[in-house]
Amino acid sequence: MQNVTVVSHPLIQHKLTIMRDKQTSIAGFRVLLREIAHLLCYEVTRDLELELIPIETPMGPMDAPTIKGKKLVFASILRAGNGLLDGMLDLVPAARVAHIGIYRDHETLQPVEYYFKAPSELENRLIIVVDPMLATANSAIAAIDRLKRRGANNLRFLCLLAAPEGLEKFTRTHPDVPVFTAAIDSHLNEKGYIVPGLGDAGDRMYGTK
Q1: Could you read off the pLDDT of 13-62 as tens digits, one per residue?
Q2: What angle do CA 183, 153, 74 make, to 5 degrees?
Q3: Is the pTM of this model over 0.90?
Q4: What residues are labeled active site?
Q5: Structural domains in the chain?
Q6: For residues 71 and 65, what is the distance between their CA atoms, to the nearest angstrom?
Q7: DSSP readout, 31-66?
Q8: Which of 51, 75, 164, 189 is the most buried (most CB within 10 A)?
Q9: How far apart are CA 66 and CA 53, in angstroms?
Q10: What is the DSSP letter of 184?
Protein backbone atom coordinates (compact mmCIF):
# COMPACT_ATOMS: atom_id res chain seq x y z
CA MET A 1 0.00 0.00 0.00
CA GLN A 2 1.24 3.48 -0.82
CA ASN A 3 2.35 5.64 2.10
CA VAL A 4 2.36 2.63 4.49
CA THR A 5 5.58 1.44 6.15
CA VAL A 6 5.68 -1.96 7.87
CA VAL A 7 8.51 -1.93 10.40
CA SER A 8 9.68 -5.53 10.23
CA HIS A 9 12.68 -5.37 12.56
CA PRO A 10 13.23 -8.80 14.19
CA LEU A 11 13.10 -7.39 17.73
CA ILE A 12 9.73 -5.78 17.03
CA GLN A 13 8.31 -8.97 15.53
CA HIS A 14 9.58 -11.07 18.44
CA LYS A 15 8.08 -8.77 21.05
CA LEU A 16 4.83 -8.51 19.10
CA THR A 17 4.49 -12.31 19.12
CA ILE A 18 4.73 -12.34 22.91
CA MET A 19 2.15 -9.55 23.14
CA ARG A 20 -0.27 -11.49 20.94
CA ASP A 21 -0.15 -14.51 23.27
CA LYS A 22 -3.25 -14.44 25.47
CA GLN A 23 -1.20 -15.87 28.35
CA THR A 24 1.00 -12.74 28.53
CA SER A 25 0.33 -10.85 31.77
CA ILE A 26 -0.91 -7.29 32.05
CA ALA A 27 2.49 -6.19 33.36
CA GLY A 28 4.29 -8.00 30.57
CA PHE A 29 1.99 -6.51 27.94
CA ARG A 30 2.67 -2.98 29.21
CA VAL A 31 6.43 -3.46 29.25
CA LEU A 32 6.47 -4.93 25.76
CA LEU A 33 4.30 -2.13 24.35
CA ARG A 34 6.66 0.45 25.81
CA GLU A 35 9.70 -1.37 24.38
CA ILE A 36 8.14 -1.67 20.92
CA ALA A 37 7.28 2.04 21.08
CA HIS A 38 11.01 2.77 21.45
CA LEU A 39 11.79 0.77 18.32
CA LEU A 40 8.91 2.20 16.28
CA CYS A 41 9.87 5.72 17.34
CA TYR A 42 13.27 5.29 15.66
CA GLU A 43 11.58 4.50 12.35
CA VAL A 44 8.88 7.17 12.39
CA THR A 45 11.48 9.87 13.18
CA ARG A 46 14.18 8.55 10.85
CA ASP A 47 14.03 11.49 8.41
CA LEU A 48 13.73 14.41 10.85
CA GLU A 49 15.56 17.46 9.56
CA LEU A 50 18.74 18.43 11.40
CA GLU A 51 20.66 21.68 11.74
CA LEU A 52 24.09 22.46 13.15
CA ILE A 53 24.55 24.48 16.31
CA PRO A 54 27.78 25.59 18.00
CA ILE A 55 28.61 23.80 21.27
CA GLU A 56 31.67 23.27 23.48
CA THR A 57 32.76 19.70 24.19
CA PRO A 58 35.35 19.00 26.92
CA MET A 59 37.91 18.96 24.12
CA GLY A 60 36.86 22.12 22.31
CA PRO A 61 34.23 23.79 20.07
CA MET A 62 32.28 22.11 17.29
CA ASP A 63 29.18 22.48 15.17
CA ALA A 64 26.90 19.59 16.21
CA PRO A 65 23.60 18.32 14.75
CA THR A 66 20.30 18.90 16.52
CA ILE A 67 16.67 18.47 15.44
CA LYS A 68 15.52 21.50 13.49
CA GLY A 69 12.34 23.45 14.08
CA LYS A 70 9.73 23.49 16.82
CA LYS A 71 9.31 20.58 19.22
CA LEU A 72 7.57 17.46 17.97
CA VAL A 73 4.03 16.67 19.07
CA PHE A 74 2.98 13.15 20.03
CA ALA A 75 -0.82 12.93 19.84
CA SER A 76 -2.23 10.03 21.83
CA ILE A 77 -5.68 8.64 21.03
CA LEU A 78 -6.97 7.79 24.50
CA ARG A 79 -6.78 5.49 26.20
CA ALA A 80 -4.65 2.82 24.54
CA GLY A 81 -2.47 5.36 22.75
CA ASN A 82 -0.83 6.20 26.06
CA GLY A 83 0.96 2.83 25.99
CA LEU A 84 2.88 3.91 22.88
CA LEU A 85 3.14 7.51 24.07
CA ASP A 86 5.06 6.59 27.22
CA GLY A 87 7.71 4.72 25.27
CA MET A 88 8.12 7.49 22.72
CA LEU A 89 8.54 10.10 25.45
CA ASP A 90 11.38 8.00 26.84
CA LEU A 91 13.26 8.80 23.63
CA VAL A 92 11.98 12.35 23.01
CA PRO A 93 11.22 13.72 26.48
CA ALA A 94 11.01 17.31 25.21
CA ALA A 95 8.15 16.49 22.81
CA ARG A 96 4.84 18.24 23.31
CA VAL A 97 1.80 16.01 23.88
CA ALA A 98 -1.75 16.18 22.58
CA HIS A 99 -4.53 14.04 24.04
CA ILE A 100 -7.51 13.07 21.91
CA GLY A 101 -10.30 11.28 23.74
CA ILE A 102 -12.22 9.12 21.27
CA TYR A 103 -14.05 5.88 21.91
CA ARG A 104 -15.73 3.51 19.48
CA ASP A 105 -19.46 2.99 19.85
CA HIS A 106 -19.71 -0.80 19.92
CA GLU A 107 -23.08 -0.76 18.17
CA THR A 108 -22.31 1.58 15.26
CA LEU A 109 -18.47 1.27 15.32
CA GLN A 110 -18.42 5.07 14.85
CA PRO A 111 -16.06 7.33 16.85
CA VAL A 112 -17.34 9.50 19.68
CA GLU A 113 -15.08 12.36 20.82
CA TYR A 114 -15.09 13.32 24.49
CA TYR A 115 -11.80 15.21 25.01
CA PHE A 116 -9.27 17.24 23.02
CA LYS A 117 -6.24 19.14 24.31
CA ALA A 118 -3.28 20.07 22.11
CA PRO A 119 -0.23 22.37 22.13
CA SER A 120 -0.17 25.66 20.26
CA GLU A 121 1.15 26.29 16.75
CA LEU A 122 0.26 22.86 15.37
CA GLU A 123 0.74 24.25 11.87
CA ASN A 124 4.49 24.60 12.57
CA ARG A 125 5.08 21.17 14.12
CA LEU A 126 5.42 17.55 13.05
CA ILE A 127 2.63 15.62 14.77
CA ILE A 128 2.85 11.86 15.26
CA VAL A 129 -0.54 10.38 16.14
CA VAL A 130 -0.32 7.13 18.13
CA ASP A 131 -2.82 4.34 18.75
CA PRO A 132 -1.93 0.63 19.02
CA MET A 133 -4.67 -0.55 16.66
CA LEU A 134 -5.81 0.66 13.24
CA ALA A 135 -8.94 -1.48 12.87
CA THR A 136 -11.93 0.23 11.23
CA ALA A 137 -9.81 3.44 11.12
CA ASN A 138 -12.80 5.51 12.22
CA SER A 139 -11.11 6.79 15.40
CA ALA A 140 -7.82 7.49 13.63
CA ILE A 141 -9.57 9.41 10.85
CA ALA A 142 -11.58 11.42 13.39
CA ALA A 143 -8.38 12.28 15.30
CA ILE A 144 -6.60 13.43 12.12
CA ASP A 145 -9.67 15.45 11.11
CA ARG A 146 -9.66 17.19 14.50
CA LEU A 147 -5.95 18.01 14.33
CA LYS A 148 -6.24 19.35 10.79
CA ARG A 149 -9.08 21.64 11.90
CA ARG A 150 -6.62 23.05 14.45
CA GLY A 151 -4.12 23.81 11.69
CA ALA A 152 -1.96 20.66 11.61
CA ASN A 153 -0.51 19.98 8.17
CA ASN A 154 2.46 17.68 8.84
CA LEU A 155 1.14 14.45 10.34
CA ARG A 156 2.13 10.81 10.65
CA PHE A 157 0.18 7.90 12.13
CA LEU A 158 1.89 5.19 14.18
CA CYS A 159 0.25 1.94 15.28
CA LEU A 160 1.19 -1.53 16.40
CA LEU A 161 -1.27 -3.49 14.25
CA ALA A 162 -3.39 -2.59 11.23
CA ALA A 163 -6.19 -4.30 9.33
CA PRO A 164 -6.29 -4.07 5.52
CA GLU A 165 -9.81 -2.60 5.65
CA GLY A 166 -8.71 0.16 8.03
CA LEU A 167 -5.58 0.94 6.04
CA GLU A 168 -7.54 1.24 2.80
CA LYS A 169 -10.07 3.60 4.38
CA PHE A 170 -7.43 5.68 6.20
CA THR A 171 -5.14 6.14 3.19
CA ARG A 172 -8.10 6.99 0.98
CA THR A 173 -9.37 9.62 3.45
CA HIS A 174 -5.97 11.06 4.42
CA PRO A 175 -3.55 10.23 1.58
CA ASP A 176 -1.15 12.89 2.86
CA VAL A 177 -0.59 11.13 6.22
CA PRO A 178 2.03 8.32 6.20
CA VAL A 179 1.23 5.23 8.28
CA PHE A 180 3.84 3.26 10.23
CA THR A 181 2.89 -0.13 11.67
CA ALA A 182 4.57 -3.27 12.99
CA ALA A 183 2.21 -5.63 11.15
CA ILE A 184 -0.76 -5.81 8.79
CA ASP A 185 -3.06 -8.61 9.92
CA SER A 186 -5.61 -10.68 7.99
CA HIS A 187 -8.97 -8.93 8.39
CA LEU A 188 -11.61 -7.47 10.71
CA ASN A 189 -14.26 -9.66 12.31
CA GLU A 190 -17.95 -8.76 12.51
CA LYS A 191 -17.31 -6.75 15.69
CA GLY A 192 -14.59 -4.65 14.10
CA TYR A 193 -11.67 -6.36 15.85
CA ILE A 194 -8.41 -7.21 14.09
CA VAL A 195 -7.86 -10.92 13.38
CA PRO A 196 -5.63 -12.61 14.52
CA GLY A 197 -4.72 -9.39 16.37
CA LEU A 198 -4.09 -9.35 20.09
CA GLY A 199 -7.50 -8.49 21.51
CA ASP A 200 -8.40 -5.07 22.88
CA ALA A 201 -5.12 -3.26 23.56
CA GLY A 202 -6.64 -0.97 26.20
CA ASP A 203 -8.20 -3.86 28.11
CA ARG A 204 -4.95 -5.82 28.03
CA MET A 205 -2.96 -2.80 29.22
CA TYR A 206 -5.25 -1.90 32.09
CA GLY A 207 -6.90 -5.19 33.04
CA THR A 208 -10.41 -4.06 32.15
CA LYS A 209 -13.23 -5.77 30.27
Answers
A1: 999 999 999 999 999 999 999 999 999 999 999 999 999 999 999 999 99
A2: 55
A3: yes
A4: 104, 108, 200, 203
A5: 4-45+71-206 (3.40.50.2020)
A6: 15
A7: HHHHHHHHHHHHHHTTT--EEEEEEEETTEEEEEEE
A8: 75
A9: 7
A10: E
